[in-house]
Specification:
CATH architecture of the largest domain: Alpha-Beta Horseshoe
Distance between the termini: 52 Å
CATH topology of the largest domain: Leucine-rich repeat, LRR (right-handed beta-alpha superhelix)
Low-confidence stretches: none
Strand content: 15-25%
Strand order of the largest sheet: 1-2-3-4-6-8-9-10-11-12-13-14
Mean pLDDT: 84
InterPro entries: LRR_dom_sf (IPR032675)
Protein name: F-box domain-containing protein
Largest sheet: 12 strands, parallel
Helix content: 25-40%
Number of strands: 14
Order of helices and strands: HHHEHEHHEHEEEEEHEHEEHEHEHHE
Length: about 375
């Protein structure tokens, strides 16, 4: 079979649904299918210290088959506190060959203390003109931020990150810093990460940010103030996603002030997850929600608000906060562009759907309120 009557785009979509064994079999069926098969077979490179996924094995393979290198667009390195990557002699050489990487994921890597050759290879990847997405989890990072990454970076996810303030990575001369459009910050060190993202310099590298996701775990009031600093820099923000994971039943989150969103008049969607709306619970977040939404004015153009209240940290039987929902209803009813308010509740509240809807008569009347389990 040397030809196919289907458009190449359709063929690629079909091949993309195949598993590994089928992809290997399909690659020997036709020379015309080989590039598409290779793009799926070698799209993502996952490195492990030993075995077939080891840097030594991959380096030997790519040295013998350099035509495969352009197909590799994703890189994933998982380790424990740098462990094997620090002493692997082949890894720097292998990373220097990956010139078309678009996505990188690191888990458990302590960047400030890596060997010089490996640090250089990694930072060169970070500054690659092709790199678009970076995910760093349980990593230690140097004090510089967007100077680490190239101008093509579009998305950065930071989970449980530690910042080492005494280590600085200098950017190459005349290099343009990254200006991502998507940012996710997760963990208990939100304040420190925000300080890292927003240096004392006058430049604002978050000006192009359109999607901000904050998943906070803990009770530090300063963390929510840090979120407000992010919002001040992200004047073009369109989607705000906040998840509040209180440390326990004695959480102080309910007395923390909500971040002001008066700076973000281009907001279109607000998503709240892990939401507690039980008036008898010490982690009831409805007053916090009311404070957050009250920062919106007639100049805002929010169209959709979704609230995920399926998780309940309090083991007691839930009690619906009628006044809290009524306050939210009054605030949202004056927002003309609002098209959809979606509240998703858990089984514990399944008998309270009518109560919640009755607390929000103006949104119900306008036909934009949905409450489901």
């Amino acid at each position: 079979m040397e030809s196919c009557s289907l458009p190449l785009e359709v063929v690629d979509l079909i091949i993309g649904q195949l598993d590994l064994a089928a992809l290997k079999a399909c690659s020997v069926v036709s020379a015309s299918l080989l590039p598409s098969c290779r793009s799926h077979l070698f799209q993502h490179l996952e490195l492990r210290p030993t075995g077939k996924a080891s840097p030594e094995n991959w380096n030997q393979f790519l040295s013998a088959s350099p035509h495969i290198i352009p197909y590799i667009r994703g890189l994933e390195i998982l380790c424990q506190r740098s462990s094997w990557v620090s002493w692997d002699p082949v890894l720097p050489t292998l990373l220097s060959k990956l010139e078309h990487i678009e996505e990188i994921e690191f888990l458990g890597c302590d960047f400030p203390w890596l060997p010089a050759a490996l640090s250089s290879a990694i930072y060169n990847l970070f500054r690659s003109p092709s790199l678009k997405r970076v995910s760093l989890r349980l990593c230690v990072l140097p004090s510089s931020c967007f100077d680490l990454f190239g101008p093509a970076l579009d998305s950065i996810a930071l989970s449980e990150i530690t910042i080492e303030p005494d280590v600085v990575v200098c950017a190459p001369e005349k290099s343009r810093p990254a200006r991502p459009r998507y940012l996710m910050v997760e963990g208990k060190t939100v304040s420190a990460v925000v300080d890292w993202l927003i240096p004392s310099s006058e430049t604002n590298d978050l000006e192009d940010l359109q999607n901000l996701c904050v998943k906070y775990q803990g009770d530090d009031p300063e963390a929510l103030h840090a979120v407000e600093r992010l919002l001040q820099c992200a004047s073009n923000l369109k989607t705000l996603d906040i998840s509040l994971y209180p440390a326990g039943l004695q959480s102080t989150l309910t007395i923390c002030s909500a971040p002001a969103i008066c700076y973000n008049q281009r907001l279109r969607e607000i998503h709240l997850s892990y939401f507690d709306m039980d008036i008898s619970s010490p982690t009831n977040q409805l007053p916090w929600l009311g404070s957050l939404l009250s920062g919106m004015t007639v100049h805002h153009a929010v169209q959709k608000i979704s609230i995920d209240a399926r998780h309940r940290p309090c083991p007691r039987a839930p009690v619906v906060d009628h006044s809290g929902w009524a306050n939210v209803d009054a605030i949202l009813a004056r927002l003309a562009p609002l098209l959809d308010v979606y509240i998703q509740i858990g089984e514990a509240y399944s008998s309270s759907i009518a109560q919640i809807s009755s607390c929000m008569p103006m949104l119900s009347k306008n036909g934009i309120l949905r409450v489901t389990t």
